[in-house]
């Protein structure tokens, strides 16, 4: 089934009680990805964002200069703090740099049981920098995939999760989708942005029962820093607002497309700049 882009729902259509979305991820000092992108995307799509920071990165549009994982007791304290006070409906998970952090987050989410969990298996930054320890991938599959409502890998990340070399991928999405169904998770939103060259940008929502394709215009820009963070956060936001998994994927795809369309107008940094999370505000101005 193919879905065409539709208008982004206005925040004015939400119920008076704004749903709360928690992002668990690393901080990007450049502001384009990670926690910063998550909070922007969740806010721009009409939900309330809170956060748990798992790592501090020295990062800009040119690359990642250093990574400092937050000590486990401090991550646990953050999780207990927000869950003990806030009615968190959905959780987005991004960068978890080590197996120990992954196991802790999984344990706490099983304790608090939020309704929706969107897992973005962040492994490599847009610049190509590795963001996780090699052993963390196994822990991710074992501890977090089984409790996720949906995972949102790009094609290289998806291939890594099934133990295949991304450099050997032949472009067969049907075969890849079939293999991805064997992963221990409910659904996979496979991001097709790495498929080049194409006129359209296509993502696939893969579940045990079916595969839905979401197509949008491919926009020619180098400013794509934080696209994965943005898409998964927007999807968590729409799930928190009551959208179905298919509708949330479509709404998030629409939002990201417009954020990418306006990215060049920001003119941020010397490398891969960020998308324009608040494009609607900038356009109206």
TrEMBL record:
Pathway named in the protein's UniProt entry: Cofactor biosynthesis; thiamine diphosphate biosynthesis
TM ranges: none
SUPFAM superfamilies (UniProt xref): Ribokinase-like
Domain Pyridoxamine kinase/Phosphomethylpyrimidine kinase as annotated: residue spans: 28-276
Entry EC no(s): 2.7.1.49
Gene Ontology terms: biological process: thiamine biosynthetic process; thiamine diphosphate biosynthetic process
Keywords linked to the UniProt accession: ATP-binding, Kinase, Nucleotide-binding, Transferase
Domain of life: Bacteria
Pfam families referenced in this protein's UniProt entry, alphabetically: Phos_pyr_kin
GO cellular component: a single term: cytosol
GO molecular function per UniProt: ATP binding; hydroxymethylpyrimidine kinase activity; phosphomethylpyrimidine kinase activity
Keyword ATP-binding: yes
Alphabetized NCBIfam families for the sequence: HMP-P_kinase
Protein name according to UniProt: hydroxymethylpyrimidine kinase
Origin organism lineage: Bacteria, Pseudomonadati, Pseudomonadota, Gammaproteobacteria, Vibrionales
